[in-house]
Q: What sequence folds into this?
């Protein structure tokens, strides 16, 4: 094996095609997009060189700031919700339902395969106040909570958006973490139980540390997915009311394709790339420290 | 479409959708056929409605789209509900507000409005502006002679915000879409409905219109006390106009255009009951009374106005329409609403 991988020609043959495709479909467009950040204009009128103009515009653009802030807020809330609910579901599967969890797993996983637009339409109706009071509103009013129009303000829209996306994806994280929990050897749990660890203490001192790697991958998955949220926002609130629920992705899309400003759109895209990269690095840094400790 | 234009690959006809700005940009890049010259060369220029020509020129600076639709806008009202409340058709804005208050008290939603798309709400702002400042109110903004943040302009946004604050658009106006708003009006749940004459198709459709077509009345946006505009200046538009590609023009396209210009007006009235910007030559069939009213109003109209976003750039248009619901639900003040749009106009 070593002799094969030590051979330069073999490496070229094995990696070459994949690297070529990757370069063509990923790296070249990325470089191209980076190039656009220095230009103004669009494909119809042609491009003119704008220097660092797009970057100073980004720095001073209140709409970009609020989009960035919303992106963070959303990513943190939804990631926390997804991973926490996923973890609780996984614990439920492993320790409460045990062998009979297949049916529940399937049911909870079901929303993952539904199209986002359909889910968003359903949530619009659930939380609507007009023309009919939605089911969710009826239920909440039964509990004595009168919220009024959820989609009229930034806060209400945000809550519905987070609830929807957590509901939509917790099944996926449930299964992901479930697979990780299955890897914990039964003997370890058995001996912990013999030592008197039950319930919360068993989870806190045995299950949680042993499932840290899969938990970490879930967090990385989740944060990177939620930072790039697009479809659910577009379908549920269309970024509204006003631009109160507009994340960077939607702002980028509108700037480039609706307003025809490719350069500034690319600049917003590069900000998003930097944010994703930064967050991933931070998460990995944490993970490394944990592993050396453990 | 931008991508197709960038590759010189626009189809022979394409929707001049979005804002006039995009079509103007395409025109600057030499992609849009000059229809005035073409139709004059083909000898069919006189088959167009003069009012439609004027509206297209207002929008695009010159005549370069085919007016397959020609619409006027105003407030449609439920005659029976007005009679029940002993109300005459409002001719001033104050009377309109008083009527709305009376409907609200009796449990009828005064205005059905599609707040999800936003434009039916901003149309009320421009309606007020045109009555208050005259038909060139928004051209002045486009030319930079006035700003939307000027007190007179903010006053118009405030007037519409006040309608919302009083609850005249009903509950959850930001979640109401076009079909729901139409349905509210046509099932008698709402007394008034600001809309363009393209909705005639729905009004004349017995399965949709539960209040009866003869129960629907039309009033132009009423006058504002002390304002410079008058109620006979009707907002008009050419619906979803279609431009013709300059690069794909040839003799066959010319034949097709001249045939359409001569015959489309009558065919459209006869088959679909919609009014177009072409003169109806020949057999139009019997028109429903409402359609006849619209046709008569168009004939009488001498000055037409545009809608709120007509001369805005794409970004300002979107800002205006997405912030219309927050304006009437009170989460955005009239001043901030106008400021946001003006900022986009200044940066555009």
A:
């Amino acid at each position: 094996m070593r002799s094969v991988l030590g051979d330069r020609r073999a490496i070229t043959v094995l990696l070459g095609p994949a690297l070529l495709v990757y370069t063509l479909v990923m790296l070249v467009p990325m470089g191209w997009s980076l190039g656009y950040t220095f230009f103004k204009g669009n494909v119809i009128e042609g491009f003119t060189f704008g220097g660092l103009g797009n970057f100073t515009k980004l720095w001073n653009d209140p709409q970009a700031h609020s989009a960035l802030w919303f992106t963070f807020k959303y990513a943190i809330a939804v990631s926390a919700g997804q991973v926490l609910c996923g973890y609780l579901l996984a614990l439920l599967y492993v320790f409460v339902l045990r062998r009979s969890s297949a049916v529940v797993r399937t049911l909870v996983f079901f929303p993952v395969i539904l199209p986002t637009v359909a889910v968003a339409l359903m949530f619009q109706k659930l939380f609507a106040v007009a023309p009919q009071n939605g089911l969710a509103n009826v239920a909440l009013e039964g509990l004595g909570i009168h919220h009024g129009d959820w989609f009229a303000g930034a806060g209400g829209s945000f809550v519905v958006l987070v609830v929807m996306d957590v509901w939509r994806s917790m099944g996926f994280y449930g299964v992901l973490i479930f697979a990780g929990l299955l890897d914990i050897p039964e003997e370890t749990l058995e001996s912990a139980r013999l030592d008197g660890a039950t319930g919360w203490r068993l989870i806190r001192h045995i299950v949680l540390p042993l499932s840290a790697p899969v938990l970490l991958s879930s967090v990385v998955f989740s944060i990177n997915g939620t930072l790039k949220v697009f479809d659910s926002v577009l379908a549920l609130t269309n970024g509204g009311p006003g631009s109160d629920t507009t994340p960077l992705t939607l702002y980028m899309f509108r700037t480039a394709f609706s307003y025809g400003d490719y350069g500034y759109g690319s600049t917003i895209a590069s900000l998003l790339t930097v944010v994703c990269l930064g967050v991933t690095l931070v998460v990995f840094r944490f993970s490394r420290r944990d592993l050396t400790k453990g | 479409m931008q991508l197709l234009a960038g590759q010189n690959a626009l189809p022979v006809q394409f929707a001049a959708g979005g804002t006039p700005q995009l079509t103007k940009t395409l025109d600057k890049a030499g992609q849009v056929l000059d229809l005035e010259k073409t139709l004059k060369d083909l000898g069919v220029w006189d088959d167009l409605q003069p009012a439609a020509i004027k509206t297209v020129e207002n929008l695009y600076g010159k005549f370069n789209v085919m007016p397959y639709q020609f619409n006027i806008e105003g407030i449609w009202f439920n005659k029976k509900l007005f009679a029940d409340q002993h109300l005459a058709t409002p001719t001033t804005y104050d009377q309109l507000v008083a009527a709305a208050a009376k409907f609200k008290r009796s449990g009828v939603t005064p205005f059905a409005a599609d707040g999800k798309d936003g434009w039916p709400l901003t149309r009320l702002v421009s309606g007020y502006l045109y009555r208050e400042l005259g038909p060139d109110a928004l051209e002045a903004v486009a030319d930079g002679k006035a700003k939307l943040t000027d007190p007179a302009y903010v006053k118009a946004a405030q007037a519409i915000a006040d309608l919302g604050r009083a609850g005249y658009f009903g509950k959850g106006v930001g979640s109401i879409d076009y079909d729901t708003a139409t349905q509210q009006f046509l099932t008698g749940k709402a007394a008034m409905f600001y809309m363009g004459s393209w909705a005639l198709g729905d009004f004349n459709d017995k399965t949709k219109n539960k209040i009866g077509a003869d129960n629907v009345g039309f009033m132009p946006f009423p006058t504002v006390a002390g304002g410079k505009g008058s109620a006979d200046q009707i907002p008009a538009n050419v619906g979803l106009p279609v431009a013709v590609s300059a690069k794909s023009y040839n003799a066959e396209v010319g034949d097709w255009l001249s045939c359409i210009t001569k015959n489309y007006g009558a065919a459209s009235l006869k088959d679909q009951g919609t009014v177009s910007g072409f003169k109806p030559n020949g057999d139009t069939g019997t028109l429903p009374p409402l359609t006849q009213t619209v046709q008569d109003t168009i004939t009488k109209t001498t000055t037409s106005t545009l809608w709120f976003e007509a001369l805005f750039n794409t970004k300002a248009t979107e800002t205006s329409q997405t912030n219309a619901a927050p304006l009437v639900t009170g989460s955005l003040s009239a001043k901030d609403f106008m400021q946001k749009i003006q900022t986009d106009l200044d940066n555009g």
About this structure: The longest strand of chain A covers residues 39-42.
